Amino acid sequence: MVSKESRAKIRENKHRRIRHQLQGTASRPRLAVYRSNNNMYAQIINDEEGRTLVSANTLQKDVAADLEKTNDVEAAKAVGTMIAKRALEAGIKTVVFDRAGYIYHGKVKALADAAREAGLEF
To answer: Which of 64, 66, 108, 120 would be 115's cystine partner, CB 3.0–4.6 Å?
Structure first.
């Protein structure tokens, strides 16, 4: 009998391999994305200090105010725009994109594209 590994386990393994290659520095921090069933989260992290510099998610009132749902592509675009806006205010222009093992498609791609359009470079 063939047993199949769960999607979550496969994603975790991909994420581990990706994180082995990516490192957020002070000059170029890491933009980490997390996608749950109900919300989207994004953080810009300096891995040298272990500090989160900027964050945005669909639970925050200023992001969720204009949204009908918090788990669709439009919500991801709103989070991407907000994270880029906050990063530029904090003086961060370039980042390394960490997709956290998710396929670069749909919500993850929408978040990345919105962040690029709002002024972040990666």
So the answer is: 120
Copy the structure tokens of residue 32.
């980490």
Q: Please state, in angstroms and rounded to a whole number, the distance separating the CA atoms of residues 89 and 27.
A: 15
What per-residue string of b and e applies to 78-101 under the rule 16 or more CB within 10 Å gives b?
bbbbbbbbbbeeeebeebbbbbbb
**Helix extents (H) in the chain:** 7-21, 61-64, 73-89, 107-117
With beta carbons less than 8 A apart as the criterion, state whether 118 and 84 touch.
yes
The yes-or-no verdict on residue 58 having pLDDT over 90 is yes
Cα 62 to Cα 66: distance, rounded to the nearest angstrom:
8
Angstrom distances, CA of residue 62 to CA of 46, 79, 81: 24, 10, 12
Bridge pairing between strands 96-98 and 51-57: unpaired
- Per-residue pLDDT of 70-87, as tens digits, reads 999 999 999 999 999 999
Contact between 76 and 114 (Cβ < 8 Å) = yes
Q: Hey, what domains does the chain have and what are their CATH numbers? A: 7-117 (3.30.420.100)
